[in-house]
């Protein structure tokens, strides 16, 4: 198939969605364009109004610091959701990456982060291969690998905290140094978001992934390598989980199966959805996911300000997910197993 035919095929998959008649103020479109920034500004303003010292006391820095690992996990989740699947394992993979990094920094020094990122990217690719070539639904498969990676983290760490004993200075520097007072760990996620946004918008690789989420059957008949694009989405989710593991080590200097990063599953999914990613696939804006992550990182502070107990935070995440999905979900399906 020559390039002209491929171009026409991709247009046939992408254009019907963009030209399909829509209501002028469709809730999904409103949310995806202005919702993520609006909800963050509104929530931040509420917290600032109720607790004036929050702004002057470096509140935004605190929120951005907390958002760093959430953002990277959410970006991986957004890429997988964009192809019409879901990755329930990338949060536990993040924790496993952090533990392995804490253990390997001493013997491998500066090569350790690269080794860990390669390993977890391969783990993500295995998820994608199984989803794409066995047609096991991604929810069921990644729920299983979530348990495997979680068990791996417990076994590798002996269910204890693993401290960085040597060669951790370059990693810790990502947290200790920053721009505008905000640690580089957060800017790492912002940089990844911008790169992914450009990839999805301007490259055939990224447009192909979006085409799968919009109409996988059409993408298949147009001659796209849909299976390998799915594998790539899951592999990128693994890569971003590795970067999230690096931010955990940078911030804490240690990793534990029950420590920082052990509860990223719900926040990661919530941040992707609040950031405008469609749960039914075919629509995501990684830059908006940044604001989704900031909003989710702000929830513990906002709930405390209005008097909600810390134990209810997961309840709040769940309510947010249900509300946003109910408001924005595209309810037409194409019958392809996701």
What would you note in describing this structure?
The chain has 338 residues and is mostly helical. It has 15 helices and four strands. It has helices spanning 3-19, 27-50, 53-56, 59-82, 90-108, 111-134, 138-157, 169-176, 184-202, 204-214, 216-221, 226-252, 265-274, 286-305, 313-328, and strands at residues 162-163, 178-179, 182-183, 254-255. The strands form two sheets. A two-stranded antiparallel ribbon has the order 1-4. Helix 2 packs parallel to helix 14 and helix 5 (90-108) runs parallel beside helix 7 (138-157). The longest helix is centred in the last third of the chain and has 27 residues, at 226-252. It is globular. Mean pLDDT is 85; it is low at 1-9, 15-23 and 331-338.
Number of separate helices: 15
User: C-alpha Rg, in Å?
Assistant: 20 Å
N-to-C SSE series?
A: HHHHHHHEHEEHHHHEHHH
Structural class: mainly alpha
Distance between the termini: 27 Å
Portion of residues in beta strands equals under 5%
Per-chain topology:
Layout: H1 3-19, H2 27-50, H3 53-56, H4 59-82, H5 90-108, H6 111-134, H7 138-157, E1 162-163, H8 169-176, E2 178-179, E3 182-183, H9 184-202, H10 204-214, H11 216-221, H12 226-252, E4 254-255, H13 265-274, H14 286-305, H15 313-328
Helix pairs in contact: 1-10, 2-14, 4-9, 4-12, 4-13, 4-14, 5-6, 5-7, 5-12, 6-7, 6-12, 8-12, 9-10, 9-12, 9-14, 10-12, 13-14, 13-15
């Amino acid at each position: 198939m020559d390039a002209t035919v491929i171009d026409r095929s991709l247009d046939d998959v992408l254009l019907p969605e963009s030209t399909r008649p829509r209501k002028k103020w469709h809730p999904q479109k409103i949310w995806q364009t202005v919702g993520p920034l609006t909800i963050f500004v509104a929530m931040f303003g509420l917290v600032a109004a109720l607790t004036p010292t929050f702004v002057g006391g470096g509140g935004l820095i605190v929120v951005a610091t907390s958002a760093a690992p959430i953002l990277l996990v959410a970006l991986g989740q957004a890429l997988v959701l964009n192809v019409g699947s879901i990755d329930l394992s990338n949060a536990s993979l993040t924790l496993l990456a952090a533990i392995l990094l804490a253990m390997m920094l001493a013997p491998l020094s500066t090569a350790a982060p690269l080794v860990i990122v390669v390993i977890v990217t391969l783990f993500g690719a295995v998820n994608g291969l199984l989803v794409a070539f066995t047609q096991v639904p991604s929810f069921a498969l990644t729920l299983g690998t979530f348990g495997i990676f979680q068990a791996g983290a417990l076994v590798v760490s002996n269910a204890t905290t693993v401290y960085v004993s040597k060669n951790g200075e370059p990693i810790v520097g990502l947290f200790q140094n920053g721009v505008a007072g905000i640690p580089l760990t957060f800017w790492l996620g912002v940089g990844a978001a911008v790169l992914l946004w450009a990839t999805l918008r301007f490259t055939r690789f990224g447009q192909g992934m979006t085409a799968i989420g919009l109409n996988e059957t059409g993408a298949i008949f147009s001659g796209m390598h849909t299976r390998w694009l799915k594998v790539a989405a899951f592999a990128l989710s693994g890569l971003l989980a590795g970067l999230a593991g690096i931010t955990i080590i940078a911030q804490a200097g240690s990793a534990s199966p029950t420590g920082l990063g052990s509860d990223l599953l719900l926040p990661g999914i919530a941040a992707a959805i609040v950031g405008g990613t469609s749960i039914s696939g075919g629509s995501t804006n990684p830059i908006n996911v940044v604001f989704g992550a900031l909003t989710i990182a702000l929830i513990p502070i906002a709930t405390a300000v209005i008097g909600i107990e810390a134990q209810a935070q997961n309840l709040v995440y769940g309510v947010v997910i249900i509300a946003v999905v109910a408001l924005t979900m595209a309810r037409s399906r194409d019958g392809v197993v996701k």
